[in-house]
Amino acid sequence: MLNHTGKSELEKSKAHIIVEIIEYIPNAVVSKTIIKKSTGNITVSSFDAGEELAEKISPFDNYIQIIDGSAELIINEVKFKLNLGEGIIIPAHARHNFTANEQFKMISTIIKSGYEE
């Protein structure tokens, strides 16, 4: 979804209610980019009940925060239930996947710099 400036990011210097910028779509996982830079990105996603994201591995740490509902997250075969307001760091190179036993929305923040330290 593009905003009126033609960019895929949210408009800068304009307040928003994060949980309202993305809707639930039946039988779908939907994502919207908040900020995308070479050093990292912030994305908000909505999962309809019954949806899941296949297991994947990222080369970067990923901070997840639940902003609506609750999510099931598996990191390296350990299951977590994240409720509204809770967050967790998925470590770089960890196998992980999400399952929506109910609808949920989350913010994902990936930092791509600082690993050289």
* E-strand count: 9
Overall tally of domains: 1
Distance linking N and C termini: 36 Å
Q: Estimate the mean pLDDT confidence.
A: 90
Name of the CATH architecture: Sandwich
Q: State the order of secondary-structure elements, H for helix, E for strand.
A: EEEEEEEEE
Strand content: over 45%
Global shape: globular
Output the radius of gyration.
Answer: 14 Å
CATH topology: Jelly Rolls
Low-confidence stretches: 1-7
How would you name the CATH homologous superfamily? Jelly Rolls
Give the key terms.
4-stranded antiparallel beta sheet, Jelly Rolls, disordered N terminus, 117 residues, mainly beta
Write up this protein:
The chain is an all-beta fold and 117 residues long. The chain has a single domain, classed as Jelly Rolls, CATH 2.60.120. The chain is 0% helix and 50% strand. The protein has a 5-stranded antiparallel sheet, with no helix packed on it. It has a 4-stranded antiparallel sheet with strand order 3-8-5-6, with no helix packed on it.
